Amino acid sequence: MNDETRDLLHQLEQATSREAVDRGSLDEETAMLRENWLAFGRLLQSSDQSRLAETISLRPPTASPRRSGLWILASVASAIAASFILWISWPAIFPNNHQGVVQQPDQVHPEPGLPASGVYRGMREVAWEDDWDHNFYQTSLALQQFHDEQRRRDSSLSQLQSEFLEFAREVESESL
Amino acid sequence: MSTGSKQDSDEDRVIRWVTEHGSAVRGYLLGLLRRQDLADDLIQEVYRRAWQARNRYAEQGSPRAYLIRIADRLAWDHVRRGQREVTLDEAHWGEIEPLDRAGLPQDPLIDSEARSELAAALDLLTIPQRRVLLLRYYSEMSFEEIAAAMECPLSTALSHCRRGLLALRKIMTENHS
Question: Which of 52-91 (B) contact A at CB < 8 A?
Fold first, then answer.
C-alpha cells in the first residue's frame, strides 16, 4: 500500500466511521465527506427501507425462472435432434417412400430368365422390383423345385412298389 | 443427541439472522438494485443459501457482513448479466409498501419525501460507488473486506467511495439551500 492509498484509507475511515468523530480534528475535505456520509445514512434510515424489511417473509422455494428456461431450451433442442435423426434415418426405414414414388401394379413385371410356362407360371405372376421380394421369390422357387423333384422320385418309387406288390400277389396266388 | 442440538442451534441461528439482519440485507439490495421485486426475490435466495450452508458456517466475523456478502454477490451477478436497472421515481418509491403497515406509526408525507430524496441521491451515484457506500453502511465491513468482496484493488474501492461521497455533496447542498 502506497502513501496515497494509506492517506485516502485513513480519510475515508474517519469520514465513514460509525463512532463519533471530533469534527475539529478533521481537515476540511474529510469534514465535508463526513457530513455527506451522515446525510446519506440519515436518508437510508428514514426512507422506510428498514421498516419495510422488518416485515419480510420467506417464501417456500419454487422452481427458479432460470431452471424453467433451461427446461424449455432442453425440450426444444431434444425436439430438433429427434426431428433431425428421423429425417436422416427415414430413407433407411422406408427406402421406397423417400422419393415419393409408389410402385403401381402395371409396373410389375415377370422375373427375367425364368421359364414362361409350366407349374411356376402362377408363382411368377407377381414379382416386384424389390430386393427382399426378389430373394423371397427365388427362395420359394427353389423350394418348389426341390419339392417337385422329391415328388417325382416318390412317384417312381411308388410305381416300383406297386409292381412289387402285384408280383407278390401273383406269387401268393400261384399264378406264376 | 449432540448432533440434534447442534442442528437446532444452526436452524435457530438462521432464523435469528432473518429477524436481526433481514432489514439490512433488504436495504442493501433495494439501494443497489432499486427494484423491490428483485430485492424480494434475491433476499429469498440469500436466506436459502444461508440455510443450505448453515452447517458449514463458521463463526468468523459478523453474520451481517456474511449475509450482505452473499446478497452483494447475487446482486452483482444480476447487474453483470446486463439486466436493465429500473430507476424508481418518487411515485414508484411511494408504491413500495410493507406487507403489513398496520401498527407502524409514521407520517406518510415524511416517508415519501425521504424516499424521493434517497432516490435522487442514489441517482447521483454510479453502481460501483453505490456498491461501496452501501456495503460500508449496511455491512460495516472494512475497506479491505469491501475491496475483496468487489474483487478489485483497495485503491479502486477507496476511489469509488470518495467519488461517491463527493457526488452526494450536490444533493446535500440542495437540501441545505
Answer: none
- Interface probe for A, chosen from B92, B104, B132, B172 (most Cβ of A below 10 Å), is B172
What distance lies between CA A19 and its chain's CA centroid? 66
Helix (H, G, I), strand (E, B) or coil at B79: helix
pTM of the model: 0.56
Interface of B with A in 17-36 (CB under 8 A): 18, 22-27, 30-31
pLDDT digits (tens, 9 = 90+) for A135-164: 777 888 888 888 888 788 787 778 888 888
Which positions ≥6 away from B156 have C-beta within 8 Å?
A: B147, B150
Measured CA to CA, the distance from residue B153 to residue B160 in angstroms comes to: 11
Greatest extent of chain A over all pairs of C-alpha atoms, in Å:
162
d(CA A152, CA B141): 108
Q: Directed axis angle between helix B127-134 and helix B2-33, to 10°? A: 140
| Cβ separation A36–B162 shorter than 8 A | no
CA distance A8 to A6: 5
Supply the angle between the helices B2-33 and B63-80 in degrees, to the nearest 10: 50
| A98 φ/ψ angles, rounded to the nearest 5 degrees | -70, -20
C-alpha cell at B55: 452447517
Q: Which of B86, B55, B53 is nearest to B70 (CA)?
A: B53
pLDDT tens, N- to C-terminus, chain B (177 residues): 444 455 557 778 788 888 888 888 888 888 888 888 888 888 888 988 888 887 777 766 788 888 999 999 999 888 887 655 555 555 554 444 433 444 344 445 556 677 788 888 888 899 999 999 999 999 888 999 999 999 999 999 999 999 999 998 877 776 655
